[in-house]
Amino acid sequence: xxxxxxxxxxxxxxxxxxxxxxxxxxxxxxxxxxxxxxxxxxxxxxxxxxxxxxxxxxxxxxxxxxxxxxxxxxxxxxxxxxxxxxxxxxxxxxxxxxxxxxxxxxxxxxxxxxxxxxxxxxxxxxxxxxxxxxxxxxxxxxxxxxxxxxxxxxxxxxxxxxxxxxxxxxxxxxxxxxxxxxxxxxxxxxxxxxxxxxxxxxxxxxxxxxxxxxxxxxxxxxxxxxxxxxxxxxxxx
Length: 237
Prior knowledge:
Rossmann fold, two-stranded antiparallel sheet, nine-stranded mixed sheet
């Protein structure tokens, strides 16, 4: 049985669902998300609730709702909120992102976040375990359907932040823009200086004016091969 672990000294305690291990991508996204003025947020495909947990640790004014398709993961997300006495600030809903219009009111979010499956449906061999397959590829929700749900939830001016593979960046921008989520900030993530980017951190704004701010690349290692100072800051090490 998985146990709760303290994410950093004095920080939140977290138990990871079996098919949604805690990854650097979620931690980087939680640091990238702007929280100024955000009072109501949604995490689409929340897994064990790690994004909500990290964001709630950053802002006492924020209330989050996690939406998760898999009952087993949703149950662990609820456990994580109870373990940290956050059940009054984060509700977990077991439901389908594609049915978001039947679950939540339009325009009810200042902020929507997501760490979605990175691979399109039909791209390569998948695990016969449906939960593992859903964690890897867009078997239950496409990128376009994710952006549709985010646009439904965001108020005008609301932010949608996600992490994705850099090779799919053009697809992400197209899917967002087609639904009125104007890409406003981009930060690429590289393992080390000189390496090609592996991840992209993206912020869009519903009804935002054109204009993309490209931030300095986030390097995970320094010139010695050790963790970069910025990664240590993000991970509270």
